[in-house]
Specification:
Radius of gyration: 20 Å
Structural class: alpha+beta
CATH class: Mainly Beta
Number of helices: 2
Strand content: over 45%
Number of strands: 10
Largest sheet: 10 strands, antiparallel
Order of helices and strands: HEEEEEEEEEEH
Shape: globular
CATH architecture: Beta Barrel
Helix content: 10-25%
Length: 162
């Protein structure tokens, strides 16, 4: 009976250690998001129509620095209305609008919703981030089909400042 109690207490402590580690990872992500100094890099694009596209050799980023957004993401899909001479993709910067953060402590993830408008289009963003820094980004535009990306976020302070 003593060995059963000992094994049970070990299992409980392993579970507690795992939960403690997950909480630390989540708190680290919350602090990074609250700093508003991070970058999203995509490994894969998921257009509405067609197969997923590997982006590991295609440079891309979405940077949030304070209240500014810097976006340089490829686009694959249907465009409804674009300017003549548009170089394709999402290439713009501007001030974030309607920035909303939702933390799910139980699932240990964060959803960010924000908008950006420029002279030619209006964009809505949904960035979902897990405690392991994996993230998915969905961009919805008035002039293009929506597209999703899978990737990771990194601390902007540790890589570079634009």
């Amino acid at each position: 009976m003593f060995s059963f109690i000992h094994l049970f207490s070990q299992e409980t402590s392993k579970k507690e250690l795992r939960e403690q580690k997950q909480n630390e990872e989540f708190n680290s992500i919350v602090a990074l998001i609250n700093s508003k100094k991070f970058e999203f890099n995509a490994n894969q694009a998921l257009p509405v129509e067609g197969p997923s596209i590997d982006l590991t050799t295609n440079p891309n980023h979405l940077i949030i620095k304070d209240d500014s957004l810097f976006c340089d993401m490829p686009f694959f899909g249907r465009a409804f209305n674009i300017d003549l001479g548009d170089r394709g993709g999402f290439h713009f910067s501007g001030i974030l609008e309607n920035f909303k953060k939702t933390e799910n402590i139980k699932k240990k993830n964060i959803d960010l919703k924000f908008k950006l408008k420029n002279s030619s289009d209006s964009y809505q963003f949904l960035l979902s981030i897990t405690r392991s820094k994996s993230a998915s980004l969905t961009i919805t535009s008035n002039n293009r089909a929506s597209i999703a990306y899978w990737g990771k976020i990194t601390d902007l302070e540790k890589i570079r400042i634009p």
